[in-house]
Design goal:
alpha+beta; single chain; four-stranded antiparallel β-sheet
Length: 211
């Protein structure tokens, strides 16, 4: 297991995997656990994960993802959904998530629900598009944690966002775009080719200090 700093240097958007190499169940469980433990706004965890194992389904997904090779060469293909309808004020999901942290019969329980719902009304918005944008932004926290855990374990990954027909994929996978929508597709596996040189801006370019 490599250090966290080394894992950041190791990680890259792997475009093609060695389809003969498979991730162990133990290591993939660690990757999912990293996603599960991720932070989220107001502790709502507005994501769901779907592991796609079916070969025929992967081929259909590949077709809708501009024929990207990582869809079918990856050891594991994970679809990350961002919740929508569960985040509307008054939803049972919000009540359930608060109940996991506070006593249902306490004043704190009702107060926290009100705080969450007021935040959504006043800061997020009440359209599907506004809630999806808020929810999707948080899924990136879980996505990054899963990719980081994979890298620590010497496992490659590639996030795919925007490079697919979301409407067609939703129809294939859920057909319920009001409840949740696809945020990111994540592929995991082991690289077939050597990693290209990682190029980033220097610290001096990205960091400014106010004294």
């Amino acid at each position: 297991m490599m250090s966290f700093e080394d894992s950041l240097k190791f990680r890259h958007a792997c475009k093609i995997f060695d389809d003969k190499l498979k991730i162990s169940d133990e290591n993939f469980s660690k990757i999912i656990e990293a996603g599960r433990l991720s932070p989220s706004s107001l502790g709502l965890e507005p994501w769901d994960f779907l592991l796609v194992k079916n070969t025929e389904l992967k081929q259909r997904l590949k077709k809708e993802c501009w024929d990207q090779a990582q869809i079918t060469t990856a050891s594991h293909l994970l679809v990350v959904f961002a919740k929508i309808s569960d985040l509307y004020p008054g939803s049972e999901y919000i009540k359930d998530m608060v109940s996991r942290r506070t006593d249902k019969n306490s004043n704190q329980h009702a107060t926290y629900i009100e705080k969450i719902e007021n935040f959504i009304r006043n800061n997020v918005g009440l359209s599907d598009l506004e809630i999806f944008a808020w929810s999707k932004a948080q899924t990136f926290l879980a996505v990054q944690n899963m990719m980081s855990m994979a890298a620590v374990l010497g496992i490659d990954s590639c996030p795919m966002e925007g490079w697919f027909s979301e409407k067609n994929l939703d129809a294939i996978l859920t057909n319920d775009s009001q409840k949740r929508r696809i945020a990111v597709i994540l592929s995991f596996g082991y690289r077939l080719n050597e990693q290209s040189l990682k190029i980033r801006r220097s610290v001096d370019e990205i960091l400014k200090v106010i004294h």
